[in-house]
Structure formats: C-alpha cells, structure tokens
Amino acid sequence: EPEVTQTPSHQVTQMGQEVILRCVPISNHLYFYWYRQILGQKVEFLVSFYNNEISEKSEIFDDQFSVERPDGSNFTLKIRSTKLEDSAMYFCASSEDRAANEKLFFGSGTQLSVL
Amino acid sequence: SQKIEQNSEALNIQEGKTATLTCNYTNYSPAYLQWYRQDPGRGPVFLLLIRENEKEKRKERLKVTFDTTLKQSLFHITASQPADSATYLCKTGANNLFFGTGTRLTVIP
Questions:
Q1: Residue B8: what pLDDT?
Q2: How many other CB atoms sit within 10 Å of the CB of residue A75?
C-alpha cells in the first residue's frame, strides 16, 4: 500500500538553528499538510499546500515556518530559527483531493528536539 | 471560533465490552466528520467518515453516529480487544482540518 514517508525520524538541533523536515507524499496525491503534536497534547494543524502554494495556515504557522515542494516528489517544512517550544512530533500528510470528506494519509513523523 | 472536544482524555474498559467515545463540536456545522486511530509515536490512521445526512455508519466492530442537533458524534467499538488500545481522534472543521483532543482507550484483558 502506498505510504507517506518522512525523514529524518529524529532530529536534534540547537535553539536558533534552522531545520528542514522532509516528506514524500503519496505519488498521485495533490494536497499536502503539516501537523505537529507536542508530547501529550493534541494533533495541531499547521499548513496545507496545493498547486505550489499555501492553501491555509493556522496561527501557529508564523513567519518562522515555510513550506516548499522543491521537486515533483518532496514536500518540506522549514523552521528558520528554532525555539525550545518547537520541540514536537511533526507529521506530514497528503490527500487525493481537497474535499471536506477526503481522508488524510499520515507519515510516521519526525521527532524534533530543540535544545 | 470553531471548537472540537472529546469528552474524555482516557477511557479504560474490560475486554469484550463496548467502548463509546464522544466528539462534540461548537460554532460551526460540518458536512463530514472523520475518526482516526493513533498509536504511540505514529501518525493518525483513518478509520471512518460520516456525513451530516447519515445517522449511523458501521465498519466491522466500529460504529459511528452523527447527531447534528446535539452537535455530537459517538464512536463505538463493540467486543473490544486489547489490540484496540490506542488514542482515537475525531476530525472536522469548516475545512475539515482540525482534530479533537483525542481519547486514549485502554482495553483491559
């Protein structure tokens, strides 16, 4: 079964450093998403992406965050200057369509630890 | 603002019993509501979707109801098994992007 893959599975960085989290969505999917989950808390929406531009973003997704689809397969999340509170599990997801009934397929996540 | 709440952070039940989880939403009227399962350290996995004009949806031992008057969805697992132990999330929103807080279900053998 096709799946969303994320790399790395764990990322440790120093506060203030830039990190790039990488995702390969399912190949025929057109919509891409990033979510994050702070340990013990809910899964929070960050951003959705379609046709090479951001469709929607949450209040969490401030100027420190950016997303990009640099080629035909990868989808990346960049955090420009990491803060301690950015430590979380980051999940990438993709879907075939944008309809409200469309189910999302999630990757296994990247655990980001900011020291 | 839109709000989604799952009434219990944790639910413990005996194996073989029916688990019932609740999802409540406020300040909007979604056309669809989805339920996902999340295991520790893993991404959510889609289980079921129910439309606003459907009262009930079933899949094997799973059943979901959708009450637009109460603004509530119930998720049932019948004949529960220890392997059903996980966190269950509801997902909705005007753009269907937001998850509830999740309920951690533990099925005790």
A1: 78
A2: 24
